[in-house]
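Q: I have 145 residues here and want to know how they pack in 3D. Can you give me a structure?
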Amino acid sequence: MDSILSRDQVSTEPGAIHRQSRPALPHALQAIQIKRQVRDLNQDKWRTVTVYAITSLPTWQAGPTELATWIRGHWSIENRLHYVRDVAYGEDHSQARTGNARRNMAVLRNLAIGALRLTGATNLAQAIRHLSRDATRPLTLLGLT
């Protein structure tokens, strides 16, 4: 079996080599493939993006419709959080490389994004610029002054 769901195992004995495949994800009960048509707003060309998901949930707990809904929800979170962290805060260009610095900065960025969303801010880049112009504004937003 040659797939992401299997793992080959080779063993030797005097006079023989044994090769067998066993499941790499033994608890996987379902796999789903989703193909999306995507077009960047500044381009006319469409492209196909294929994603896969694997779950241990049986079909009676999560059928194709539920799985597709959950995956769509995951991408909603991805777009609302990770995209903002990358674009507004330039996270992908961060120079933090030692210890837990990257993780700690991600936690602080998530805190800031969450606090801004709680205020009803819809344009986070504008809100970040506004808060960065006065050192007391972020503290006031968090109720620390």
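Q: Anything worth noting?
A: DSSP finds four helices and four strands in the chain. The first helix runs from residue 64 to 89.
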